[in-house]
Q: What sequence folds into this?
């Protein structure tokens, strides 16, 4: 049964795609023939999607009949239960406002940058943890009831009390921009009335990113080769779009997998 980090990645990769989520949900009502599934999601790439779901251990395929594995059933059940729980919590949240910036000081780590304190109201106490999946580079700490969000060099910490500290900021205008960005992401999430599914904690390493790149060292991404590009991706100093080769059909699977992996960096 999937459980370790690699298996979690396989499952995340499998369900990151809308067609595959559709297949899984379709199978929730019982076994289906590949023909029936093809009518729902299209036949052109059906084999590809079924293979990915099989590799993730979510389905079983025997003689043209597809069904959820035991793991697949439990996975679907957990997802449904979690989403029902979170819907209740998130629907009670109120949109936030940013109160004025309270303090601007030099950053301890780099005195050429600023450390800015502000406040969000109302406090985010009960829902702070649920906000974590809204930000790709974020980490919630139960112990401190704080959410750390990274964007480029900027590091923001939001506390359950509503206190916000932004570090490594260039000037007050940049701080205001970042506060507005956070506010609109949080309020858009709250407006949906449903918390996003919690992100699985997965560690991604450099070699894993590297091995999914095309390995041609063509340099079209502006780097010396794929390894250098992988380093830039790990440092979040480059985006996958720069590797134009990944858009070619033969790298479709690599591209999808890399999209999932870079979200965990
Ligand atoms: S463009 Fe893609 S394949 Fe070419 S060197 Fe860069 S990462 Fe490698």
A:
């Amino acid at each position: 049964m999937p459980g370790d980090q690699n298996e979690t990645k396989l499952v995340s990769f499998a369900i990151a795609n809308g067609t595959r989520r559709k297949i899984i949900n379709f199978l929730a009502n019982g076994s289906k023939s590949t023909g029936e599934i093809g009518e729902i999601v299209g036949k052109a790439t059906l084999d590809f999607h079924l293979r990915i779901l099989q590799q993730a251990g979510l389905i079983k395929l025997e003689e043209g009949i597809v069904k959820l594995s035991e793991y697949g059933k439990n996975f679907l059940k957990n997802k449904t239960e979690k989403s029902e729980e979170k819907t209740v919590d998130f629907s009670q949240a109120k949109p936030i406002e940013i109160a004025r910036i309270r303090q601007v000081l030099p950053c301890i780590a780099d005195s050429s940058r600023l450390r800015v304190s502000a406040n969000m109201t109302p406090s985010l106490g009960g829902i702070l943890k649920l906000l974590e999946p809204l930000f790709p580079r974020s980490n919630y700490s139960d112990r401190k009831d704080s959410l750390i969000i990274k964007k480029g060099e900027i590091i923001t910490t939001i506390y359950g009390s509503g206190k916000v500290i932004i570090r490594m900021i260039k000037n007050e205008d940049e701080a205001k921009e970042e506060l507005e960005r956070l506010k609109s992401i949080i309020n858009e999430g709250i407006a949906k009335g449903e918390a996003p599914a919690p992100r699985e904690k997965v560690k991604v390493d450099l070699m894993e990113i590297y091995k999914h790149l095309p390995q041609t060292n063509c340099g079209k991404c502006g780097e010396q080769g794929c390894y250098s590009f992988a380093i830039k991706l790990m440092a979040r100093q480059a985006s996958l779009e720069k590797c134009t080769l990944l858009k070619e059909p033969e790298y479709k699977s690599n591209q999808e997998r890399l999209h999932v992996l870079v979200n965990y960096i």
